[in-house]
Amino acid sequence: MNYADLFRVTLPETVLELAALLVLVVDLGLLRKAAHGVRLAVAAALGVGGCCVAMMTVELEGITWLKFGTSSDFTLLGTGGFIAVAQTGILVLTALTLLLLLDSVFTKHVGEFVAVVLMSAAGGMLVAAAQDLLVIFVGLELLSLGLYILTAFAKHSGKSAEAAMKYYLFGGMSAAFLLFGFSYFYGLTGTTNLEQIQFRMTMAGPSPLFYVAWILVVAGLGFKIAVVPFHLWAPDTYEGAPAPAAAFIASVSKVASFALLITLARNWWLGPSGNLAADGTTLEQVLRGYYQAWPQLAIVLLIASAASMVVGNLAALAQSSVRRLLAYSAIAHAGYMLLGLAAHPVFTGVGTLVDFNANSYFLTVRGLGSVLFYVLTYGLTTVGAFGVVAIVERATGSDRLDSFLGLHKRAPLLAAVLLVLFLSLAGIPPLVGFWAKFNLFAAVLGEHGGPAPFALVCVAIAMSAVSLYYYLQVLKRAYVMPAADESRIKVHPVTLAALVAIAAAVVLLGCFPTALGGWIEGF
User: Fold this and answer.
1) Domain assignments of the chain as residue spans, ordered by start
2) Which of 51, 102, 351, 489 has the highest count of CB atoms within 10 angstroms of its CB?
3) DSSP H helical ranges for 480-492
């Protein structure tokens, strides 16, 4: 490894950091006495511009790895392939989040807010590309510290401060669990490289410390994606954080975390080079060592997936706050996505090894691709949903269900956007949310076909039907129930254009799902 290669691989993150510094210099140095609207527009424009430039520097061709060490056997970071897809998604979602700022009045420190958003996005991109435990931890901390700050940015709001404190305390505990698990992996294998950990653990076979390490890592990452029982921070954070911050947490943080989980899944099957072992170890040896440990771990993940789907959807039924409804919905969606990852190995039922061939490997890759498709489309839809909620909340002073009464008369275009986004989250065809669930469930059943995966897919479908009920509760108030106040809701034209673009993308990707799905599978 040389510094030129390191700079090339980390160029998108570098661009975001430079954009963050530029925002601070312009806002604090040149526009300190300008009107709030001007400062907000300039900071958001610079942030979106930084995201666009960073997007141009993402390497899309193939998949390459930044090596380090004297033998160049240890992978530090990756570029291209599914990593490029995740990083591009992070940049698009970050830019859309910044466009939501144009309708916000929660802070006077707009330059600092945009800078923290960009630096957190850089952390998320680093997480998506990381192939080493130390790089993963550094990226997660850069992402998480920014999220804690963003949650507390509404200084006049007690809910914001409370949410940030809870988020920080839970996040600190999860980081401790994660680092402790990483230390066990290092102690067991003598390396922090994911590829080498996979190979050495497979050859050595499972041990009690191996299971302890994995449980600690699952607990740490379970907090990041808000799955049961590590979800308690999510409702308060989604409710108390400023709307753009909540949108960023619900989208960018999810994409980065699931990209990391996909990396772990790929490395647990194959090294980044695509070779099972460099010393001639046979495929059967690798698979046998792998399956000695996986059934117990798969059961833990499948239980967490099922619990998240059930708890998230049932708890959402009782919510009167749309923000908290979206929080419990996010927990349920994390359960769906975790199902695709937990059912990653080729099993017929839990714990039964079947023949591994080229076709089954294709199905496994398709399963991981369906998870990436799901998290990207979910992130896009959620940013739009929080954008609509933020506008209604600013106009009515509340995010309660009754705040959406008569929305189709007060803001017809905004109501149409809400209709598209919520129906997509519920999985109604032909919107992209339907194809995200269909591809995920089809991949799980296509890889397995055993009783356990089939039962969990049935649970997921049943819970999706439950989710339709609480999404329709919001839409009923927007379209059916009369409004207490029929005065028009004013929306910033740029924000409205961004929301309409998101809704249009949800419709178009639903009508042409191969546009995104084919791009992902092409890697």
Assistant:
1) 3-521
2) 51
3) none
Q: b/e per residue, 289-323, with b = 16+ CB within 10 A?
A: bbbebbeebbeebbebbbbbbbbbbebbeebebbb
**Partners of 64 in the beta sheet?**
79
Q: Which residue has the tokens 């990756």?
A: 78
CA distance 231 to 245: 18
How do strand 63-68 and strand 74-80 relate by DSSP bridges? antiparallel
Q: How confident is the model at residue 468 (pLDDT cuts 50, 70, 90)?
A: very high
Q: What are phi and psi of 63, to 5 degrees?
A: -140, 125
| Cβ 410 vs Cβ 483: under 8 Å | yes
For residue 391, pLDDT over 70 is answered with yes
Give 68's contacts (C-beta < 8 A, 6+ positions apart): 1, 74, 76
DSSP assignment letter at 482? P
Task: With CA atoms as reference, report the closest residue to 307 among 350, 262, 339.
Answer: 339
Q: How far apart are CA 420 and CA 407, in angstroms?
A: 14
Q: Which of 459, 367, 389, 468 is nearest to 424 (CA)?
A: 468
Q: Residues near 347 by Cβ (< 8 Å), separated by ≥ 6?
A: 295, 298, 353, 354, 447, 448, 450, 453
pTM listed for this prediction: 0.88
Residue 11 has a CB neighbour count (10 Å cut-off) of 17
Tokens 């819970």, residue?
Answer: 463
